[in-house]
Amino acid sequence: MPEQQPPYLRIADELRRRIAEHEWEPGDRLPSRTQIGQECGVGENVVRRAQELLISQGVLEGRAGSGTYVAKPCQRVRVVRSSAREQGGGSPFGADMRALGKQGDWESRTEAKFPAPAEIAARLGIAEGDLCVRTVYEFLADGRPVQLSTSWEPYDLTGGTLVVLPEGGPHAGAGVVNRMAQIGVTVGHAVEQPEPRQATAEEASLLGIQKASLVTHIQRTYYSDEGRPVETADIIVPAALCEIVYEIPINR
Amino acid sequence: MPEQQPPYLRIADELRRRIAEHEWEPGDRLPSRTQIGQECGVGENVVRRAQELLISQGVLEGRAGSGTYVAKPCQRVRVVRSSAREQGGGSPFGADMRALGKQGDWESRTEAKFPAPAEIAARLGIAEGDLCVRTVYEFLADGRPVQLSTSWEPYDLTGGTLVVLPEGGPHAGAGVVNRMAQIGVTVGHAVEQPEPRQATAEEASLLGIQKASLVTHIQRTYYSDEGRPVETADIIVPAALCEIVYEIPINR
DNA sequence: TCGAATTTGTGCGTATGTATC
DNA sequence: GGATACATACGCACAAATTCG
């Protein structure tokens, strides 16, 4: 006897086929699990497994208490990460949004004297417990949250200057590179380390995405031209909402 | 009554605690699930859920027919992606490995006249079905596979020249930038689009990683200084084995 | 306004497959 | 080849969310 496909995969293919044939359009609600189960001659649980698979692939979308829906292929926000992006006076995120013809806003909450946890201290080259300026961001494209970020700057670098608060004072929202330039610190390069992982429950709720869906967690650190870390951030980019693009010049 | 932690999370914390207290060292085999279940007063299935959670987080490692093991915190390979990496005569991957003091090898299989599928054609700016040179790579660090890649070059660009075959002829393994230079094509910049996803069964088997563990799928395209795409590749970087680092110079 | 019905989501158990020793 | 242990598939019960009368 040749090995045959397990039932839940057969149902998954069946659902995918019907969607491809436009039996259900994006945004439509599927029949209930019991209904599909009876129709296809399988248990309710098999349908659930099939739907869970398609949900994890972004084909379907489950809404508790309401139903299972065909996911809308929403246009993703293109997040460009390159040296060119840091030029000009505004914020990098604002530049991304302007390039897409979208409105870019953000909400932020700053704590001016936050003791550095061990990992952040290591990234900033300071001692654990040293004071930092910690800012939590929520970035919005056309009013919808699309990206999260938590930024850390050593307090002894900016304390007492006009740019202590990233989102306050005359240079609010100008971006790290521009703000550091105001106090005579030249940012020489940035290092970004993108790691794939699944969204936490809190992140999923803030971003309005399915639970445990995939995100890229970028650890970014800006260095002064003398090699000192001047800012580090944890940036959460949900795969369902954003595509990340690195542009790398090739010098020879 | 306040809501209490579900049993499987309690067991997960219990296992994590015991590992942290060195009751089991990295590489050790845990007791069987029935044994742990009896010891902790829960069903075997609860233990399984707890272990699955820790496996997905990379704390444990399951081996069918053998047991569940404490994962070894293996040193990850640092993959640097920057403009500087393309300088010098050798291959970018070889440079990464030399920087780590590891031996960098790779195996490849080239098909010289492969019709381009629709997606690749779009990325290379050619018509679907146009011929390409398609090369499948498996990159090894100290003999262990750590990265996969499938590369596509338009045949009409290199056909009839000495560098048709990426891994053959006098410039074998020199990297795209160097090989293109040999035929008078200057590579101006690269674009990389990293997407998080789960490894397929085939990828997991090739890389020797846990099934459905996380990888970064990078779509990379090299462009000539005239803006024409000269190569595109799909690169699979497993999170368990490699860390990706982008170095971005800040020009002002 | 409220509560009952519906639907998805979660936790957990059991049976079977399959790899390893 | 048998015993053991993990992996997978499937089923049931209940909780949570939503909808609607």
Automatic annotation (TrEMBL), chains A, B:
Keyword Manganese found: no
GO MF assignments: DNA binding; DNA-binding transcription factor activity
Stretches assigned to the HTH gntR-type domain: 5-73
Keywords annotated in UniProt: DNA-binding, Transcription, Transcription regulation
Top-rank taxon, per record: Bacteria
InterPro entries attached to this UniProt entry: Bact_HTH_transcr_reg, Chorismate_lyase_/UTRA_dom_sf, Tscrpt_reg_HTH_GntR, UTRA, WH-like_DNA-bd_sf, WH_DNA-bd_sf
Keyword Transcription attributed: yes
Cited Pfam families: GntR, UTRA
GO biological processes: negative regulation of DNA-templated transcription
Protein name in the entry: GntR family transcriptional regulator
Protein species of origin: Streptomyces filamentosus (Streptomyces roseosporus)
Lineage: Bacteria, Bacillati, Actinomycetota, Actinomycetes, Kitasatosporales
